[in-house]
Amino acid sequence: MANTIFQLLSDVFARYGYWVVFFGVMLENIGLPIPGETVLLFAGFLAYQGRIHILPAILTAIAGATTGACLGFLLGRYAGTSLVNRFLPRYPRVARRYHAAQETFIKHGRWAVFAARFVTGLRVFAGILAGTLRMPFSTFVLFSFAGAVCWALVIGYVGFLFGSSWDALVHLVGRMDRIGLAIIGVCAVVLFLVYLVRRKKAS
Fold first, then answer.
1. CA distance 186 to 65
2. Cβ(122)–Cβ(115) under 8 Å?
3. Alpha-carbon span 1 to 70, nearest angstrom
4. Measured distance CA(106)–CA(129) in Å, rounded
5. Which sequence spans correspond to the domains of the chain?
6. What is the C-alpha to C-alpha distance for residues 110 and 195, in angstroms, rounded to an integer?
7. Which of 78, 94, 101, 17 is nearest to 51 (CA)?
8. CA distances, 160 to each of 42, 143, 170 (Å)
9. Residue 190 has pLDDT above 60, yes or no
């Protein structure tokens, strides 16, 4: 299976190049079940092999993630409720993920937009949920873009670091949600420390 995935992605990248990263990431962020994260990991892997360049791949992923998230937001803003009521009852598993993501958004607001980048279930629905819940577009874009930059840098370079071992990278793919949660935890600690330093300087 791993070799089949490797061959398939290699062929697609050879034919379409960085467009694979852009559309793979963009379509996932619109709300389609496309493995955008896996595509970016593989792009990092190929960059290590010298077949593409890591920086353009990361910049392309940021552009795709931001574009897809904004399109998902607009979809959620203008058609979210009707789409949810029409399609989710047909797919119970997707519905469970959607409702779990919705609870997270209601509880954490704009920070859920940032954190969504690192969690598969949230990443797919982030834009749609933000639009449906009427989050201000400027707030959504700011936190979505910030999350996209952090996510693309981390995932792209993780793929690059594992570029010498395809089997290790395949094993890593199955653990990305756990790794994503760990990254969120590190980001939260860093932001808290920055807050404490600024508060100390202000007092």
1. 22
2. yes
3. 34
4. 9
5. 2-202
6. 17
7. 17
8. 8, 26, 13
9. no
DSSP character string of the chain: -HHHHHHHHHHHHHHHTHHHHHHHHHHHHHT----HHHHHHHHHHHHHTTSS-HHHHHHHHHHHHHHHHHHHHHHHHHHHHHHHHHHGGG-HHHHHHHHHHHHHHHHHTHHHHHHHTT-HHHHHHHHHHHHHTT--HHHHHHHHHHHHHHHHHHHHHHHHHTTT-HHHHHHHHTTHHHHHHHHHHHHHHHHHHHHHHHHHHH-
102-119, pLDDT tens digit by residue? Answer: 777 777 777 778 877 777
Residue 81 CA to its chain's centroid (Å): 23
Q: Which tokens go with 29?
A: 């962020």
pTM of the model: 0.73
